[in-house]
Write a structure and sequence with these properties.
The protein has 8 helices and 9 strands. The chain is of the alpha/beta class. It has a single domain, classed as TIM Barrel, CATH 3.20.20.140. A 5-stranded parallel β-sheet has the order 1-2-3-4-7. α6 runs parallel beside α7 and α7 crosses α8.
């Protein structure tokens, strides 16, 4: 994988870098070509498609419907290579990425397989706590007791720590995702867990994402929260604004608000 440093200006500029995006290859609504065209028209200079790659260790949950289908990963990367030839110029660079779910049980095998295919970058994310789908729907969370919610959150943060400590990801995706549906009564209770993940990221020089999709979810704030973002900035962790776009209209969704938030957190460091 190519390091992302040369693409990161560090200033939170709007509509320049957009690396967290999905197409119909996984759970997006636009084709890869439509997503690239929308990004270029929006003024994005470095655009990445990062469709989901999920290899759940529980065979009963495979294949995962919202991931690139097993056996289709080479074709996905081949299409992105073709689109690079079409779209790349002095003002636009397409990168071929993947959002990879981290599981302690199989991450070494999964990442070794991806090494052979050589995507441009990998986003390390967690969408499952065991068999529990963290961001599937609010109904899943409604069925949990308070202890159940705590257990899911503890598993989530332990897995994010594992993703950071393995040092194999280009960036970490949407920290504090469990808050998505608004079922965390005291998000501050998990700040110590977030700090451990941030310490691991800082030690390995791994950027984190400021994911703007959260502003459009029930939690009504980005991932991570402003509190966690301030902790990241205090550790001099690089922050990459990401739209987590699943349709062409969202490739720079809430980027202006994210840039303002980055400036605000820098002033309060």
């Amino acid at each position: 994988m190519e390091p992302l440093e040369k693409y990161i200006d560090g200033g939170g500029k709007e509509a320049v870098l957009s690396l967290h995006n999905h197409s119909v290859w996984s759970d997006g609504a636009g084709t890869a070509e439509e997503m690239c065209r929308a990004a270029k028209e929006a003024g994005v200079r470095v655009f990445g498609l990062s469709d989901h790659w999920v290899v759940h260790p529980d065979p009963e949950l495979m294949p995962v419907s919202w991931s690139i289908a097993p056996g289709k990963l080479p074709a996905y990367l081949e299409e992105l290579a073709r689109l690079k030839d079409i779209f790349n110029d002095e003002n636009f660079t397409l990168l071929a990425g993947l959002e990879v779910d981290f599981f302690f049980e199989n991450f070494e095998e999964v990442l070794a397989g991806l090494d052979r295919l050589q995507p441009d970058y990998l986003i390390g994310s967690v969408h499952y706590a065991g068999r529990f789908p963290i961001d599937n729907c609010a109904g899943d969370w409604k069925a949990l007791s308070a202890d159940g919610i705590r257990a899911v959150c503890e598993t989530y943060w332990n897995k994010m720590l594992g993703a950071a400590e393995c040092g194999r990801f280009s960036l970490l995706g949407h920290l504090d995702l469990p808050k998505k549906f608004g079922f965390l009564p005291d998000p501050g209770a998990y700040l110590p867990d977030a700090r451990r993940v941030l310490d691991a990221a800082a030690a390995r020089n791994i950027p984190i994402e400021l994911n703007t999709a959260g502003w459009s979810k029930e939690c009504r704030e980005p991932y991570p929260s402003p509190e966690i973002l301030r902790e990241a900035r205090a550790r001099n962790i690089r922050v990459i604004i990401g739209a987590d776009a699943h349709c062409p209209q969202h490739v720079t969704r809430n980027f202006a608000a994210a840039a303002r938030l980055l400036r605000e957190t820098d002033r309060t460091r």
